[in-house]
Write a structure and sequence with these properties.
Order of helices and strands: EHHE
Number of domains: 1
Number of strands: 2
Shape: elongated
Strand order of the largest sheet: 1-2
Strand content: 5-15%
Structural class: mainly alpha
Largest sheet: 2 strands, parallel
Number of helices: 2
Radius of gyration: 16 Å
Length: about 70
């Protein structure tokens, strides 16, 4: 069973926000044309990860093999 607590999604969101800051810093620099698409894809992936972790944090009930400790 996968045991989740509130700490896990909170820590994940902090790490994702750190990645978002780094990606924003990279995109503000004069990126070459070949890097623009990669940065846009990275920003989209970061946004998706944030929304998935927020949904995980909001779901407090246990479901399937995922057990919510508190």
């Amino acid at each position: 069973m996968i045991n989740r607590t509130e700490r896990i999604p909170s820590t994940a969101l902090q790490e994702i926000e750190s990645l978002e800051t780094e990606a924003t810093t990279l995109s503000m620099r004069n990126a070459h044309d070949s890097q623009v698409a990669a940065l846009a894809r990275l920003e989209s992936q970061i946004q998706l990860a944030q929304e998935m972790v927020k949904a995980m944090r909001n779901r407090t009930e246990s479901l399937g093999s995922h057990y919510r400790a508190n």
